[in-house]
Amino acid sequence: MLNTYRYTLIAFIRMPGIMIWALCFPLILATIFVAMFTPIEDMAAVNEVGMVVVEPDDSPDGQAFSQFIDGLSASDSPYRVVYANTAADAERLVRQSVDDDGSLFGFVELKDGVPHVSVAGATSSDGIEELMASMIVLAMDQYVANASLIKGLMAENPSVLSDPQVVASIFEPIQATAQVQLTQSQPKETVRFYFALLGMAALFGGSVGLAACQRLRPNSSAVGARRSVGATNHGVVVAATVLASWTICFACLLVAFCYLRFVAGVDFGGRDVLCVGTIAASSLTATALGCAVSAIPKLRGDAKSGILTGIVCFASLFAGLYGQPTMQFADDLAAQFPLLSLVNPASQIAQSFYSIMYYDSLAPYAFHLAVLLGMAVVLFLLSVRSLRRQRYASL
């Protein structure tokens, strides 16, 4: 059995078509996804708004503005403030930042009690500069509103402002919401596409199982003909071949996962061991799917490959791989018809990764893993007839 396993493994590695679909295609698609989603994640992860403030004078308006800026640049605030003596110096610092690290997005100068904002022009296509500039403008609008409120109170009831807590509450940012983390990891919309990608990559590994079963059929390959008349037990040959197919599929999917995890920096919630378990079960399901497609009678090998590709692409559609509209469509369909998601291996693989990342309990993960293993058993049973020893008039 060991020799059969080893030589089958070597034969699969030398097949260009298998390595392209099982290994190269997932890596290429993952690279495209990283290039698409990294700017979006960078925009969501930006936690510092840098700006230059021209030193205000010692007038009451200037002192009030200085107090506001000091509160704005507190340690727990997203704003980072750099001071400049003149507007020309502030503009020079912003221009220099645009050419260097891009950490300063504009400068503010107080004129006649009103802050005037000048922002840097867009230097990239991801829209981060526009977002940061709008945050600076929003902060200055808050100051104008608060200053107008204070002036109104001074005209109507000056004694109110004698209380330091009242003044502090006026300039304190409104906290209308509180952030509470309910899931195991911080949710990210883009990571769902990586889960769907791994589902598609796993199912494309079914091409290995398809090729393995074709090699076992005496009327489909010379290797199958020689093995049918050989002395090795047919059950041993089948077991070694299927094991080699699973090994190739598992290794290729593991490479794709490691590429996403360590090279692309995709967060899987720090549960890498559980992810490897999903990869192992997904590879087994994909291998069984390839064997089941190979069992379809009276079809040539290239026709069966086309059927397998169609099944994978169709299943990936309902896993939400092809963009936000399909993701929404997949969610709506799963809500209305849960059974369709249950019998879709691509959805179950994606949901398994989802449960690893976002659930503190392992019960959802175990459920999806059991579904994948159940699918593998059913698909292997469907392919048993083609894997059994058969008699032929001639080989």
Q: Could you name the key traits of this structure?
A:
17 helices, four-stranded mixed beta sheet, 67% helix, elongated, 395 residues, 7% strand
Write the layout of secondary structure elements.
Elements: H1 2-13, H2 16-45, E1 49-54, H3 60-72, E2 79-84, H4 87-99, E3 104-111, E4 114-119, H5 128-156, H6 164-171, H7 191-204, H8 206-216, H9 222-228, H10 234-263, H11 272-294, H12 301-317, H13 324-336, H14 338-342, H15 345-358, H16 363-382, H17 384-387
Parallel strand pairs: 1-2, 1-3
Antiparallel strand pairs: 3-4
Helix pairs in contact: 1-10, 2-7, 2-10, 7-10, 7-11, 7-12, 7-15, 8-10, 8-11, 8-12, 10-11, 11-12, 11-15, 11-16, 15-16
Task: Please provide a written account of the structure.
The chain has about 400 residues and is of the alpha/beta class. It is built from 17 helices and 4 strands. Strands 2-1-3-4 form a 4-stranded mixed β-sheet, with helices on both faces. α3 (about 60-70) links the parallel β1 and β2. α2 (about 15-45) packs antiparallel against α7 and α7 crosses α11.
